[in-house]
Amino acid sequence: MSSDTIARPTAKPVEDPAELRVVPARHYARWAAGIAVIVLVAQFTHGLATNPVWEWNVFRDYVFSETIVQAVWVTLQLTAYATVLGFLLGTVLAFMRLSRSPVLSTVAWTYIWIFRSIPMIVQLVFWFNLSALYEELGVGIPFGPVFWAVDSNTLIGTIGAAIIGLTLHQAAYAAEIVRGGVLSVDHGQLEAAAALGIPRLRQIRRIVLPQAMRAILPTAGNEIIGLLKGTSVVYVMSIGELFYQVQVIYGRNGRVIPLLLVATVWYVVLTSLLSLAQYYVERHYARGTDRTPPPTPLQRVRRFMTKETP
Amino acid sequence: MSAVMVDVHSVHKSFGPLEVLRGVDLKVRSGEVTVILGPSGSGKSTLLRTINHLEKVNRGWISIDGELIGYRRSGDKLHELKEKEVLKQRTGIGFVFQNFNLFPHLTVLENLIEAPVSALRRPRKEAEETARRLLDRVGLADKSGAYPRQLSGGQQQRVAIARALALEPKVLLFDEPTSALDPELVGEVLDVIKDLAGTGTTMIVVTHEIGFAREVADTVVFMDGGVVVEQGPPSAVLDNPQQERTRAFLSKVL
């Protein structure tokens, strides 16, 4: 059949249905909206780059300065400790709540209830004033004599108090996240493990938790990112983390906006790194769920460049 | 006649007000295949689950190879065993589930060696050798590195059978092993079970496959309403049932 027939199908009807050409619908409104949004974004970006208030030269001077880099390191340490300790304690609490012992589950429930009820900043100030609550901490027989005691302020410094506060707060949320993950695992998995005689702890570690991770990770990722930014409230304890140091510097030189920008950029960079890590951890725990695992973004880019078909 | 391997003695089981087992007695001899038939809700799956103590009994007792399951007897009292001891007893009882219940995040080989390594403390290498031999036996030697979801239903159930065999159990329990399978996949699973029957493995199979029962069973047990209505060799129970309830059931499924 000649190309004329296809170009003017109404003039001479095509016999073979396979020869009919599909004309995609045209979305004029979508085009218009797209252009409008691009103009707005361009205007905003232009303002961001050219507005002298941002003082990009001040930003450049401070973003990699020693004080700031050190403060970022403190922020990272606070986040790492509170994440690891918080999720460890949270996992213990989750299994206590799921336990058949009414004492364990009630204690866990009460803990979660209390620590979710107290604003983090209030709790941190409490820990900061720990020595007012307990002057000494000691080891001994419950309700009996004390063998060894230490002044509470020497045992836990300011950083220690901050880590304890963040950890206890985080553990309450982590407990519910882990419990949700454990409940999402099919009951048949536990039955199979029990029928095979696999020891109880091994059942949890090897069979339940790896499968629970699929449900735990997306919410845990949210929590850790929230925690990273949440560490900024420990500025109330005068700890030299990112937000505190930025405030100290602009208190001295008055360059508020560029220094807030320094903090913002660092928080965005750290959060992006965490999101990236989350993607790969999720991928690891997704093994076995799909017949063929989806390619990583890197593999996708490589495939696009070499025009390979998957 | 060979010794009694599984002895179920006047077992009662209720879920709340619902009485599922109302005094079941059953003896399975070593090396024999017992097939349990019966309508849904007759208590056959519950009976099977009490044998490896996935369900506790309310009254009566069960012993395997002379050992009480889930309890220790002293005088006229039955003391409940600790979970650890029950888990140890279960390593001698293989259980195959209707829905396979393979561990989806572990490869086929890891599924097979998990219990031998963690429960029986077998060296990993030895467990892997046994696992490969068993996979070969169920016709899946080339699938050791696959994940369960990459397999068909029939293949998954064959892996589950191999997983149960990896503990070298004294008795194998099958809970409707072909009920979750597409019709064309039922045959490959039944073939594996038939093959095992030929090697003298003691087995109790709950199923709806009457043809399989006729071909493989040494004893057919018909259950209804939480009791054993009739039992005997397939020729008697299937071809010449004495009880009206058995006849009514068979007329519906045959």
Description:
The complex is a heterodimer of chains A (310) and B (254). Chain A has 310 residues and is mainly alpha-helical. In chain A, helix 9 packs across helix 11 (200-230). Helix content of chain A is 71%, strand content 4%. With 254 residues, chain B is of the alpha/beta class. In chain B, the strands form 3 sheets. In chain B, strands 8-9-10-3-11-12 form a 6-stranded mixed sheet, sandwiched between helices. A 4-stranded antiparallel sheet of chain B has the order 2-1-4-5, with helices on one face. In chain B, strands 6-7 form a two-stranded antiparallel ribbon. At the A-B interface, helix 10 and helix 11 of A face helix 2 and helix 3 of B.
In one word, what is the shape of chain B? globular
Q: Which pair of chains forms the biggest interface, and how many residues does each contribute?
A: A-B, 24 and 31 residues
Instruction: Note the gap between the termini of chain A.
Output: 34 Å
**Strand fraction band of chain A?**
under 5%
Task: Determine Rg of chain B (CA atoms, Å).
Answer: 18 Å
Proportion of residues in β-strands of chain B = 25-35%
Give the % helix of chain A: over 70%
- In the sheet with the most strands of chain A, the strands line up as 1-2
Low-confidence stretches of chain B: none
Number of helices of chain A: 14
Quaternary organization: heterodimer
In round numbers, the mean pLDDT of chain B is 94
Question: What would a concise description of this structure say?
Answer:
The complex is a heterodimer of chains A (310) and B (254). Chain A is mostly helical. Chain A has helices spanning 3-7, 28-50, 56-63, 66-98, 102-117, 120-128, 130-133, 152-155, 158-183, 187-195, 200-230, 242-253, 256-285, 297-306, and strands at 136-140, 146-151.
